[in-house]
Write a structure and sequence with these properties.
The complex is a heterodimer of chains A (225) and B (311). Chain A has 225 residues and is α/β, with parallel strands linked by helices. Helices cover 27% and strands 22% of the residues of chain A. Chain A has helices at residues 9-15, 30-33, 39-55, 73-76, 96-104, 148-151, 178-188, 193-196; strands at 2-6, 21-27, 61-67, 88-91, 110-112, 114-124, 127-132, 168-169, 172-176. Chain B is an alpha/beta fold and 311 residues long. Classes of the chains: A alpha/beta (225), B alpha/beta (311). Bound molecules: iron/sulfur cluster (2 copies).
């Protein structure tokens, strides 16, 4: 899933500083699963904003709403009747949400309340870790099912670098050296040779480096059937 | 065609079977050419080639390409270091061509310390290709005379291709395999990370020799003289991938503070003597970090002078 962290209350307060009436919109997708922008978090943020503004003797009127998904126009359109009633809208979805909202409602201002960080999952309760960098050409089977593009600080295809120490990455003692993990897995399996051949130069066009990406599934595009 | 891959002095010395002795020089944090040239004087005639570091420890300095060109102008042989952190493949190939055009004939291909160590931790890290692929790329440009996209190069850069090896990083058992990969990728010579743990290095070289890697590639053992016990402590704590045995720190501490530099040099000299005899070691790479002025003395006491001339 897409993982995000909520922005600080101060930052969000400064975004809506001049507004009197806002809507806080959550999303039931990834941000609900990573506990950052679902129904519960929407209410928590709304009341925190209200309290802070009340304290500042500048009361803020807030409505809340949670969409099924903010990355889907079918759901985004559900805000059509009310979105114009507010000075601004704060979105708690990943970075995709407020963009879909802005594209549909061109007159309204949408603020992102979260920082979208990575594609990953929870490794334990309350801890999320990155697993994929969306490079567009998946090759994890070459590395024992582990992605060095996203998980090695240098995206090495032939690691570990000379800074790998005791299983930790040179960047930070608390960061796993993923190459140590890859090598050890291959060693256990007696398949070290898999890692030794020099791999082809990565074609970064499929990643963000090739420009914004688009997936077209012809059979699903309207009018093609 | 010449019998040499690059015709560099380093290649000739190694091919002739001489025990190589290379040095290192960090470019200035600025455009202070005068200071750089001053450091060159300590190296000139005392080493076969000088590594010009490339934004080492991710701290911005004068480019290694410019530093290498200055070395060449002053009559020293550069070993142009290139890291994968700061340039994509376009910039790398362009700089390789530029370096060759300016007289550079040796390169050292490195991953590069992560930028979080340096003085611009906010920077984007590139890593368009990795050090293994950089080796393969420089070899391809030399042997096939082609760019990565298979287009022909009009006057190809004929580089003697170097790579690094850190036997002290983990997982230890894998290090010799990674070395073998670098040799397969095209490394002509290897310069190791600074060696302090001799016992471990002896073991590493035994594995290297058992696999016959020393016959496919010249291995230069990395030596850094310690200036004092404080430096040893610092390196142990803060430099990733360094293995500094407590006995060495103890040895440095056992003498008076003023004598510690001499003790550090003595240890380095003992190492060099051992490397001269060690099977599979083709030379020494002396990294006298910000201590270039001691290189003449170290070379003299290590009995590696005068440096051989090979035509
Ligand atoms: S190889 Fe690419 S697509 Fe596959 S997990 Fe890694 S970053 Fe994601
Ligand atoms: S220490 Fe490991 S994870 Fe970190 S950059 Fe080096 S190879 Fe990658």
């Amino acid at each position: 899933m897409i993982v995000a962290d909520r922005k600080s209350l101060e930052e969000i307060l400064s975004m809506v500083e001049t507004d009197k009436k806002i809507l806080v919109v959550g999303c039931k997708g990834c941000v609900t699963v990573c506990n950052v922008g679902g129904a519960k978090e929407v209410e928590v943020l709304a009341s925190a904003l209200k309290i802070a503004r009340k304290k500042a003797e500048n009361e803020l009127e807030i409505d809340t709403h949670v969409l099924e998904r903010q990355c889907d126009n079918e759901y985004v359109s559900q805000l059509g009747d009310t979105v114009g009633d507010y000075d601004a809208v704060v979105s708690m979805a990943c970075g995709v949400g407020p963009q879909f909202l802005s594209e549909m409602y061109r007159e309204q201002v949408f603020y992102p309340a979260v920082n979208t960080t990575f594609f990953g999952g929870a490794t334990q309760h309350g801890v999320w870790e990155e697993r994929c960098a969306g490079c567009g050409t998946c090759g994890i089977h070459l590395f024992g099912g582990i992605c060095p593009i996203a998980r090695c600080a240098k995206s090495l295809l032939h690691g570990p670098c000379g800074g790998s120490s005791n299983g930790a990455c040179e960047v930070n003692k608390d960061t796993e050296c993923i190459w140590d993990t890859i090598v050890k897995k291959k060693m256990e399996q007696g398949k070290v040779d898999d890692l030794l051949a020099v791999k082809g130069f990565k074609d970064w066009r499929s990643a963000r480096d090739g420009g914004p990406r688009r997936s077209i599934r012809e059979e699903l595009v309207e009018g093609n059937i | 065609m010449s019998e040499f891959k690059s015709g560099s002095n380093l290649e000739k010395i190694l091919k002739a079977g001489h025990f190589a002795f290379t040095g290192e020089c960090g470019p200035p944090k600025g455009a202070n050419v005068a200071h750089l040239k001053e450091k060159f004087q300590y190296l000139k005639g005392n080493v076969d080639a000088v590594n010009m570091t490339d934004n080492q420890t991710a701290v911005v300095r004068m480019s290694s390409l410019a530093g290498s060109a200055l070395l060449f102008q002053e009559g020293l042989e550069p070993n142009f270091q290139m890291v994968c952190r700061d340039r994509n493949r376009l910039a790398m190939m362009a700089d390789i061509l530029g370096a060759y055009a300016l007289g550079v004939r040796n390169m050292l291909c490195l991953s590069g310390d992560h930028q979080t160590f340096g003085n611009h931790p906010q920077a984007k890290n590139v890593h368009c290709i990795d050090s293994m692929q950089l080796i393969a790329m420089v070899k391809k440009m030399r042997d096939e005379e082609k760019f990565l996209n298979e287009e022909d190069i009009d006057v190809a850069p004929k580089m003697f291709v170097g790579a690094a090896c850190n036997p002290f990083a983990d997982p230890y058992e894998y290090r010799v395999h990674r070395l073998a990969s670098k040799i397969d990728a095209g490394a002509d010579f290897i310069q190791t990370q600074c060696i302090f743990n001799m016992e471990k290095f002896r073991d590493f070289m035994k594995m290297t020799v058992d696999m016959g890697l020393h016959e496919k590639c010249y291995i230069l053992a990395g030596v850094t003289p310690m200036k004092n016990a404080g430096m040893a402590n610092f390196m142990k704590k803060f430099v990733p991938g360094m293995d500094i045995p407590d006995e060495l720190i103890k040895r440095l501490k056992s003498v008076d503070k003023k004598e510690q530099a001499e003790e550090g040099i003595k240890f380095a000299l003992e190492q060099i003597e051992e490397f001269k005899e060690m099977e599979g070691v083709a030379g020494v790479h002396l990294m006298a970090i910000e201590w270039e002025q001691r290189v003449p003395e170290i070379a003299e006491r290590a009995n590696v002078l005068p440096r051989p001339q090979v035509d």
